[in-house]
Amino acid sequence: MSADASPAQTAGTQAAAAGCGAPAGGAALTDAGNQAVVQGLVTKDGSPVGTGYARLLNSDGEFVAEVPLGEDGGFRFFAASGSWTLRVLAPGGVRAEQAVAAATGKVVNLEVAV
Amino acid sequence: MSRSDVLVDADWVEAHNGDPGLVLVEVDEDTSAYDKGHIRNAVKIDWKKDLQDPVRRDFVDKDGFAALLSQRGISNDDTVVLYGGNNNWFAAYAYWYFKLYGHQNVKLLDGGRKKWELESRELVTEVPKREPTSYTAEDQNLSIRAFRDEVVAAIGDKNLVDVRSPDEFAGRLLAPAHLPQEQAQRGGHIPTAKNVPWSKAAEEDGTFKSDDALRAVYSEAGVDFDTDTIAYCRIGERSAHTWFVFHELLGQPNVKNYDGSWTEYGSLVGVPIKTGDES
User: Fold this and answer.
1) CA distance B201 to B247
2) Which superfamily does A7-113 belong to?
3) Does any CB of chain A come closer than 8 Å to the CB of residue B181?
4) What are the pLDDT digits (tens) for B212-241?
5) Tell me: domain B3-140, CATH 3.40.47.10, correct?
6) Residue A6, pLDDT score
7) Cross-chain Cβ contact A78/B179 below 8 Å
8) Taking the model in full, what pTM does it have?
9) Is B36 considered catalytic here?
10) Which of A6-15, A17-26, A96-105, B92-101 has the lowest mean pLDDT?
11) Domain ranges of chain A
12) CB contact under 8 A, B118 and A89
C-alpha cells in the first residue's frame, strides 16, 4: 500500500479491527475507496433490529455472504460492481429483500424496514 | 457414522445442557460474539488467538492444543458440542481441528448460533467456571489435512472441491463479500476444481441439508464419490464445513481439508491457475 492514507485502508482497517471480519454493525463508511460497499440499517417500526442476519445474493440468486446485524441494525458488505440482492432474516420468521446495484468506489446505503 | 453421531439440535442442547461430561464450545468468526451473549455454560475458543500459531502460519502444536483444552476444562472423554455464527463455519473448522488432534467425541449444533438466535432461545453473558484438566492431544491425523504439494498433484486426479462463492472461484472477488477486497495474491481457482459453494450444503437457517440432497448437489456439480477428495476455500474454514459434509455426514472415506487454501495457493510461484466460471 502507498504511504498516503487511502480510503481503502480506512475500510480495511475497520473490518480488520473486528477480527477475521463479520463486522457486526459498526460505524457506517462514508468513503468506499476502491471497494464496492453495500451497507445499511434494518428497522422495524422505526427501531433498529439488533438480532438478525443480512445475506447477500448474487444476480443468479446464489448466496454470497452473510453477516449478523449490529446492535444498531447495521450491516456491511464489500461486493463487486453489479446487481445483488440483500435479504434479511430476523426472529419470528421475519424476512425482507431488496435489490441493490453496487459499484466500485461507491457506498450504497440501504434502509430495510421489516 | 450417522448424522445423530455428529449433529445435535437445539432441543437436545437445551435438554442436556449442564450434564456431566458435556461441554458446549462457541467458536465464531466474529470473536466478540460470545461476549455479547452465548448459550448457557458454553466456553469460548477464539479461532485465531487460540488455534493459530502466533508467528508461523500454522496451527498451535499438539502441546499447545492440549494446554488450551486443559485450561478450558475439557477432558479427553468429554463430549464437545461446537456451535458458532455464520452457519457454523468456524465451529466446523474447530470440529475438524479437534478431530485433527484426536478428540473422539465431537458434535456440531445443527444451525449453530444463527438458528438459535432466530428461534429467540436464551443467550447469557455469564462465563462458566470449569476446573482445569490434564488434556492429552494426539499427533495430527494427517489423513484429513492436505498440504500444497498434494493439492498440486491432485489436479486432474482427485476431486478438488472449491467451496468459495462463484465470484471468488472465477477470480472476480478475492475474499467473501463481507471482507474488504484487498488481498495481494492472484484470483481464480485450481484447474479442474469443481465450484460447489459451501452454502449449497446448508439451508437458509444454517442447518445441513438431508444426505440425499447433499449427494445430489455434489453429483450434479461433477464430483465423483468413488474418488478421493480435497476441499479448499480461502483460509480453510468454509472448506472444513464441506469436509464435515463429505467425511462426517456422507461417510466418504478419503477426504482432506486444504487449510492453506486460496491464500496459499494463489500466492505460490509457478502453479497453474484458472480464471473464469469453468473448471
Assistant:
1) 13
2) Immunoglobulins (2.60.40.10)
3) yes
4) 999 999 999 999 999 999 999 999 999 999
5) no
6) 32
7) yes
8) 0.88
9) no
10) A6-15
11) 7-113
12) yes
Element (H, E) at A108: strand A107-113
For chain B, the domains span: 3-140, 143-265
Whose grid coordinates read 478438488?
B160
Task: Give the ipTM of the model, two decimals please.
Answer: 0.79
Q: Does residue A92 sit at the B interface (CB-CB below 8 Å)?
A: yes
Residues of B in contact with A35 (CB under 8 A): 180-181
Q: Which CATH architecture has domain B143-265?
A: 3-Layer(aba) Sandwich (3.40)
Long-range CB pairs of B204-212 (<8 Å, 24+ gap) are B204/A55, B204/A89, B205/A89, B205/B111, B205/B114, B205/B115, B205/B118, B206/B87, B206/B88, B206/B110, B206/B111, B206/B112, B206/B114, B206/B115, B207/B110, B207/B111, B207/B115, B208/B7, B208/B110, B208/B245, B208/B249, B211/B3, B211/B249, B211/B250
Q: Give residue B43's identity as a one-letter amino acid code.
A: V
**Identical fold at B3-140 and B143-265?**
yes
Residues from chain A that touch B163, judged by Cβ atoms under 8 A, are none
